[in-house]
Amino acid sequence: MPARTLNNYILVVLDSCRYDTFMAAAPRTLNSLGTIERRWSYASWTAPAHYNLLMGLLPHASPRHVYASEYYKRDFLRYNERLGTEQIEFKSLVPHLYLPTFLKRHLGYRTHALVSLPVLNPATVLNKDFDTFTLMPKHNDMAAMLDRMVFSPDYPSFYLLNVGETHYPYALPDEPEEQWPKIHGVHGVFKHLDEIAVGGKLREEGEGRKFFDQDKLDLLRARQIEAVRYLDGVFEHLFDLLPPHTYVTVTADHGELFGEEGYFGHGPINHEKVYEVPFVEGKLR
Ligand SMILES: [Zn+2]
């Protein structure tokens, strides 16, 4: 099929963004994209969740009375609408089972990743069949990604944007680092191990004092809501710069715990709030 008739496709992943955070922020621009759905991530932390997304399997709706294989096939047919074609079947993805490979080798897309979290850096196995794969200089600056996006009328483009403002410490790009909330242990892990073990059960300190108090966790949750409100303005700029015939999906890789049942963060956590994510998509203009 002539490549230039295909839609550009933009997959935006708001890292760690909970569904109820997203709804509390009531993002006007994102709401205009389509119906906001409550969906479920296949994984509880960044690396496996992104691998799953790049297999083409977006967060699921937890359907009952259907076999997984049937759901995968049905879900994959949605790419016909996203990409603006009718020729995609699930077998199109075989044997690589990797969306960038399919888009680049079979459909002639230029494929790009702009990522915020170092656990997704260009040396990882996720970087396969991407024309460019960039770890952004800051973990929390989606607006800076917009300057790096290029489109051509001659070929369709795919962009994965991994957005970090919604990730701990839920900081906006202009907030000085010394004003970020400091959580002993978590902050060190975030800075030095790049979020590999951010989550975990709350621990008690030796003197019996709570490691985190709920007031602080409530403050962190409020910061994540504020991050979504801020990002809605960045999406307004993004939607202005995207050319016609562009389809956009916005979701999260996993949720985040803010004290429920003694958990903070994501990763080694089995709780529904770590899987519950927002999902909205639609074609621009
Ligand atoms: Zn993540």
List the helices and strands and how they pair.
Layout: E1 8-14, H1 19-25, H2 28-31, E2 37-40, H3 46-54, H4 68-83, H5 99-107, E3 110-115, E4 132-135, H6 142-146, E5 157-163, H7 186-193, E6 200-201, H8 214-241, E7 246-251, E8 257-258, E9 263-265, H9 272-275, E10 276-284
Parallel strand pairs: 1-5, 1-7, 3-4, 3-5
Antiparallel strand pairs: 2-10, 6-9, 7-10, 8-9
Zinc ion binds at residues 15-16, 45-46, 253-254.
Gyration radius, to the nearest Å?
Answer: 19 Å
How large is the count of helical segments? Answer: 9
The residue-averaged pLDDT reads: 91
Bound molecules: zinc ion
Shape: globular
In N-to-C order, the SSE pattern is EHHEHHHEEHEHEHEEEHE
Contiguous low-pLDDT stretches (5 residues minimum) are: 192-200, 202-208
Helical amount: 25-40%
Instruction: Give the termini distance in whole angstroms.
Output: 22 Å
- Counting helices, strands and paired strands, the structural category is alpha/beta
Report on the biggest sheet.
7 strands, mixed
Beta-strand segment tally: 10
Biggest sheet: strands side by side, in what order? 2-10-7-1-5-3-4
Beta-strand percent range:
15-25%
List keywords for this structure.
32% helix; 285 residues; 3-stranded antiparallel β-sheet; alpha/beta; binds zinc ion
What does this structure look like?
The protein has nine helices and ten strands. The chain has 285 residues and is α/β, with parallel strands linked by helices. A hairpin with a 4-residue loop joins strand 8 and strand 9. The two termini are 22 Å apart. It binds zinc ion (ZN). Zinc ion binds next to loops.
